[in-house]
What we know:
Chain A is mostly helical. Chain A has a domain at 63-290. Chain A contains 16 helices and no strands. The longest helix of chain A has 30 residues, at 103-132. By secondary structure, chain B is α/β, with parallel strands linked by helices. Chain B has 18 helices and 24 strands. A 6-stranded mixed sheet of chain B has the order 6-9-10-3-11-12, with helices on both faces. The longest helix of chain B has 16 residues, at 173-188. The two termini of chain B are 48 Å apart. The model of chain B has no long low-confidence stretch (mean pLDDT 88). In chain C, the strands form 3 sheets. In chain C, strands 2-1-3-4-5-13 form a 6-stranded parallel sheet, sandwiched between helices. In chain C, strands 7-6-8-9-12-14 form a 6-stranded mixed sheet, with helices on both faces. Chain C has 2 domains: 44-149 and 291-315, Rossmann fold (3-Layer(aba) Sandwich); 151-288 and 332-363, 3-Layer(aba) Sandwich (Rossmann fold), CATH 3.40.50. Residues 1-40 of chain C have low confidence and may be disordered. By secondary structure, chain C is of the alpha/beta class. Chains in contact: A-B, A-C. Chains A and B meet through helix 9, helix 10 and helix 16 of A and helix 10, helix 11 and strand 20 of B. Chain A: It is a multi-pass membrane protein. Chain A: InterPro entries: ABC_transp_permease (IPR001851).
Amino acid sequence: xxxxxxxxxxxxxxVLLGIIVGTIIMLVTGYDAGAAFIALWDGAFGDxxxxxxxxxxxxxxxxxxxxxxxxxxxxxxxxxxxxxxLVGWLAAVWVGVAFELPKVIHLPLAVLAxxxxxxxxxxxxxxxxxxxxxxxxxxxxxxxYVALHVVNHVIRTVLSNKSDRTADIYxxxxxxxxxxxxxxxxxxxxxxxxxxxxxxxxMWFILEKxxxxxxxxxxGFNQHASEYxxxxxxxxxILSMVISGAFAGLAGAMEGLGTFGYQSISGGFTGxxxxxxxxxxxxxxxxxGIVLAAILFGSLKVGALNMPLEAGVxxxxxxxxxxxxxxxxxxxxxxxxxxxxxGKKGAK
Amino acid sequence: MEYVIExxxxxxxxxxxxxxxxITLQLEKGEIHALLGENGAGKSTLMNVLxxxxxxxxxxxxxxxxxxxxxxxxxxxxxGIGMVHQHFMLVDPFTxxxxxxxxxxxxxxxxxDLKTAEKKVAEISEKYGLAVDPKAKIQDISVGMQxxxxxxxxxxxxxxxxxxxxxxxxxxxxxxxxxxxIMKTLIKEGKSIILITHKLKEIxxxxxxxxxxxxxxxxxxxxxxxxxxxxxxxxxxxREVTFKTEKIGANPKQDVLEINxxxxxxxxxxPAINGLNLTVKAGEIVGIAGVDGNGQTELIEAxxxxxxxxxxxxxxxxxxxxxxxPRKVTExxxxxxxxxxxxxxxxxxxxxxxxxxxxxxxxxxFSKGGILNYKEIYKKAKGLIAEYDVRTPSxxxxxxxxxxxxxxxxxxxxxxxxxxxxxIAAQPTRGLDVxxxxxxxxxxxxxxxxxKAVLLLSFELDEIMNxxxxxxxxxxxQIVAIVDPKETTEQELGLLMAGSTRKEAGE
Amino acid sequence: xxxxxxxLVLSLALAAGTILGACGxxxxxxxxxxxxxxxxxxxxxxxxTDVGGVDDKSFNQSAWEGIKAFGADNGLDQGKGGYxxxxxxxxxxxxxxxxxxxxxxxxxxxxxxFKLKADVETISKQQTDVHFGIIDDVVEQPNVVSVLFKEQxxxxxxxxxxxKTTKTxxxxxxxxxxxxxxxxxxxxxxAGIQAVNPDIKVDVHYTGAFDKADLGKATAAQMYSSGADxxxxxxxxxxxxxxxxxxxxxxxxxxxEIWAIGVDSDQSAEGIVEIDGKEHNVIITSAMKGVSHAVQxxxxxxxxxxxxxxxxxxxxxxxxxxxLAPINxxxxxxxxxxxAVKEWTEKIKNGDITVPGTIDELANFKAE
Lengths: 348, 507, 368
């Protein structure tokens, strides 16, 4: 079997296995699996409103997945997407509430601010990795906590008067649109999906079409050979983190300028950044794969909300099924071996 | 004649290819039997079948005349078959004994009985003349010693038949000599040996019989006493092969590379190059001979800009290039065939075509305004692949999928094609078979004849003697002697490499 | 299909209503027009939790218990057309969940917690024929009832109890995240202590989270070791760490006076510790916030056709919206505390004093 086919079949099998094991668990615990999956589907696509919500949820997932995937391509594991997302969100909302400008300036400025903030937040681990060989996983995890508390503090003291959330952004900075809301029966679907899809193209273009992308990939695959070939490994590591962080920051902008229109203090992480790891993994770190994986995760996330009400399946079980799918994706190595075995037998 | 192992008419298929087809190998008790074949001929597959890692589609395996089915390595162990792997499977911080009993621990009241094990290891070591200290840690002993630990491991588990997988690839000439003695001792003590190799000299020196396979097909078995290297080589490659590389005398001109009083530290911060002087002229090949670890790697890294130097000077065509970045060194006219082609030479996950522009991807016509022109890249790659006879299904095939020889040909094509003033070739033929070696040597000499300077680093004395016009012996970070290959012997070189002065060596 | 089912339920409910009506209960005679009766019988209620989830041992759980009790009292089944809840896993889920329930034709939908304010506001404007309730915040829409609590009044009584219990004259307060609600707890608690003894030292610390029991434990350990002997928490799940620490200290030294005060519901069950076969309890009392009561109250009013749309209902001591749980028998000054609590309760109910709801108000607060 060609490796390309395998890259497609492995995630599909992972999803199927997740569904099968989930079905078994539901049957064993006495729930109606058929009704549960119908509820899942209806909850994601059963109504134009839900479809709108699903696309809205997919938007940050695409960007978070791109962030993780881009760093992966360069051999870096950016676990800090969550923190970069939070600072991006903050920057977008800050620009959104601080000025009132014409929309053509205000909205791009807010989006740009988010990208820059995320990029700067990722620059630090990139720099530490390049200069001092500090492992980016450790630094990015720590930076997540720093981001969480810094963002909470800024919301509380700078962007509000000891309140738990910022004011709403000016309409001129908002990605929301009455047109899309009207189209989807008041869902929170916003123009961010266009931004996300543009970013998908940008990632593909950088990696596949530019000499810079060639360098980034080479560094990702083999630092020694890259150095031998005269590439600047350090600057490529930093650049990779910066671009990754910019994507993550944009994911934050989607929440700040689209879904919510404000930012509130939070005791924990949004989870979007961490789900981005699963999205990238499932999507094989390729731009198109990430889009497909984000669609899957977004649909699961929104559709799952319907399962308790429609099919009486408890939330915990829904979480287990989603976790199983992620588990089987992460364990795709197992599936690969399995496919190889089958392939060998088939050839006999 | 009593056979301890018979592999009869073995056929092993993988999807799309037949790795072994009708191969027969019969090992007599007490003999050293060579398994000879080019890289990718199917030697490893055959041995993995014997070791129980693969199941053959056809054929029979007999051990001491009895037909057996070896479905996993444990069965192979129980049948007394032991494998000494090319890449050692040892745990560095563990002692020799701990490594040997690993997975086979004898416990006494829940505690590992190290004492008894150590005693047993020492006994075996003495019996076969291995001279291994059972209490030494793996990380503290030499590569040659580590290999002996691997041998001990199989003996400890009661192996009667030992398979050596390319055992000399990692050894110095002296260590190779010692290994051959060990193998002879093993035979004297009643063991039988299969030696996987493509080095004809070793076969002639130590083996009794040799089985040749070519492209997965068994060609036959011959007695070593009735054959010669030329015959073996043509059996293996399927055509006539010349060994003595044909070359006309060198015609050296101006200095291209001039190194003066160079000092370089190694990764641990200790001096590795200690005031080294070396000159390479246009139109000559200078070979660097030395035991591994005497500063060869650091020297090449220093010239190519991969390692920062402390002091001294490195001049290329009269211009200082010391501490230039690798890119600037490359752009100054230096090509480098790296010692470790997987680590440095190729991005294995890139298509072979994209590997062909690893240093030039950013230049026109491959890139314009930061945008790659794949058409030009693949056009270039296709040309090089054809010119250097790189066997690959297509230029889009990942470099990883190519055999070692073809990977090396691709690298050489890429490096030579840049038309450098100085070509550095570090172990350019390591692990390659006779055909590929011949090809590469020809290319190096061609470069010399075109008036380029060539610096050759190799641990194969044969190669150094054959290809070089001058030999520089490196010892503890200095060039201790420059000798003419026509006037020296392997013996003399070996002593110089071990630190004797020229005078002592001559006596 | 869906419509038909709904029709069946409707007619069944109608039938039931008629039978009930026939049984001759003339209490609600005045509002019993025919159309009202129909609406009343098809009444259904649901809630959306915040990220704390329905088993947070705090106000989400309390609200759900209220809805369950209401459902049981009125013969409703869990599910569509009866009563139900939806759990939110992230802030982004509030809107989807509220919308979902509105689309499933629930008559009254509660958003539990101030975090849902923005979404309740938006969706109430879109779904104008659905009734909404928001707990702990205010949304000014004609189809939304806002529910606030005078947490400060319960906290004030807790402060009185704490001040009457402490031997070291040193008390601690652990807050979750800084927010107006938690500030009310803090201000009321401090005022209560001040009213008994202005010289008592109080440590105030915010952990920044409602779900970090480890932080709660660490904070409590620090406060107890610096001399505090009573600690009150308004920190949700974080507060569970306080109880763990108090019990641990009690186990180490049973003679030591170590006390904690619970919040939201009567948490006395969390304070039980067994030492040498004898059961002790480290929880003096709890400052209870009657989310359950409020949810039931509003559901009832709504079912009866008296939905207080557009109003902000504030539940205090006087409305039985907040209260103090029974005092632990192990507290030596129990009688003393009960007398004082009774006294202050009267004063607050009568309006003799107003308990401060913010730290700024606390500065101007004078007991007496």
